[in-house]
């Protein structure tokens, strides 16, 4: 299958020169708190401070491509119950990125090397401690760059931790994935299918429903087609064993109504609730009657699992059983647009901006 949607123009493959001290480096900052849905105007493109001189063990990097994360929509707002402060106004958001080393004072990296940084500021160039970078290994250098932000990167790792480690997916399971055609969801569907489970996915358009079937889902639902619980019951008349939730709200309630005795739910995200009070599920008593287990997770707490994930994911990629699904917009100035498009369902798979 072909997983990528890419615009014409410069992108991965173009070369990057060392940043001239006179060159303007741009960054994206949070400009205001979102009111309702996040808008591109909630961000501002600004000139970054000049880069500091390189210290020992540091490298200067140029941004090649950066992934967008839906969860950031939540962190832009005041969230009294989250345990984390909201992003300050003027803050430069961070997400995972592929970077090219352009100058090095580290024995680990030389100019031209490509590396992934988990939490890279939305900035065209930066000075970074070499220890923050994960080199793209030589044996994976032939793979398209997007793979390092999708199936082998942050969203793939999130899906694997949730589906395999937390959810303990089994061959005999019927699995339901909400937000299944997104960055995390498209990987979660494929990990469950690769383990032999029966997979049902939900997404927001007929094109995404078709994509889910290409990815190995046995059934797929367009969540616009009716009440979530009716659509899920029709797709899984005998119920589900495992729910991987990216969406929350009515998707979570539908899954609670459909999970079989001792079913499990993995709470990965709740994109439908970001910017709202995030009310709990109306039917939570089903947890008692059906002895259900709901377990949330935060991928950053599971860094120790990365080698096991990379080993399995790389094998699946090489075996043609795990495909990168991504939408690429070209141009660093399009980061705000890319982020808002992701939230409103305008992307397939991971939304990536090529600088
Ligand atoms: N727990 C963790 O450590 C962790 C780490 C990373 C991400 N996450 C979570 O994983 C989830 C997916 O993140 P992502 O970055 O890969 O985003 P994504 O799934 O690529 O993008 C979000 C998608 O959600 C769907 N959506 C938006 N509003 C919806 C609604 N009201 N009802 C149903 N679907 C809706 C849209 O697709 P459609 O067209 O299908 O509607 C949209 O494209 C998020 O909840 C995020 O917070 C959790």
TrEMBL record:
Keyword Ubl conjugation assigned: no
Entry-linked CDD domains: PGDH
Recorded superkingdom: Bacteria
The entry's keywords: Oxidoreductase
Pfam hit, one: ADH_zinc_N
Annotated ranges, domain Enoyl reductase (ER): 36-353
PANTHER family: PROSTAGLANDIN REDUCTASE, PROSTAGLANDIN REDUCTASE 1
Identification of the protein by name: NADP-dependent oxidoreductase
Lineage per the UniProt record: Bacteria, Bacillati, Actinomycetota, Actinomycetes, Kitasatosporales
């Amino acid at each position: 299958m072909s997983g990528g949607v890419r615009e014409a123009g410069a992108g991965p493959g173009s070369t990057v020169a060392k940043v001239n001290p006179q060159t303007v480096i741009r960054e994206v900052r949070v400009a205001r708190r979102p009111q309702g849905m996040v808008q591109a105007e909630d961000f501002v493109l600004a000139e970054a401070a000049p880069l500091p001189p390189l210290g020992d063990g540091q490298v200067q990097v140029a941004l090649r491509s950066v992934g967008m994360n839906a969860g950031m929509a939540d962190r832009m707002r005041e969230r009294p119950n989250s345990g984390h402060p909201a992003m300050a106004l003027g803050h430069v958001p961070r997400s995972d990125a592929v970077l090219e080393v352009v100058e090095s004072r580290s024995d680990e990296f030389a100019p031209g090397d490509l590396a992934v940084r988990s939490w890279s500021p939305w900035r065209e160039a930066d000075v970074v401690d070499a220890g923050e970078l994960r080199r793209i290994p030589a044996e994976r250098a032939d793979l398209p760059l997007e793979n390092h932000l999708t199936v082998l990167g942050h969203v793939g790792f999130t899906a694997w931790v949730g589906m395999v480690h937390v959810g303990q997916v089994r061959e005999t399971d019927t699995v339901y994935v909400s937000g299944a055609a997104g960055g995390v969801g498209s990987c979660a569907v494929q990990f469950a299918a690769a383990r032999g489970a029966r997979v049902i996915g939900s997404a927001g358009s007929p094109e995404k429903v078709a994509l889910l079937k290409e990815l190995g889902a046995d059934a797929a639902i367009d969540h616009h087609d009716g009440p979530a619980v009716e659509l899920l019951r029709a797709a899984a008349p005998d119920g589900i064993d495992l729910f991987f939730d990216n969406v929350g709200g009515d998707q979570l309630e539908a899954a609670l109504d459909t999970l079989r005795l001792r079913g499990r739910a993995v709470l990965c995200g709740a994109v439908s609730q970001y910017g709202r009070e995030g009310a709990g599920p109306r039917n939570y008593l089903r947890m008692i009657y059906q002895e259900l287990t709901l377990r949330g997770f935060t991928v950053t707490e599971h860094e120790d699992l990365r080698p096991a994930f990379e080993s399995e994911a790389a094998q699946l990629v090489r075996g043609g059983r795990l495909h990168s699904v991504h939408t690429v917009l070209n141009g660093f100035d399009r980061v705000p647009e890319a982020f808002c498009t992701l939230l409103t369902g305008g992307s397939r798979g991971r939304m990536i901006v090529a600088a």
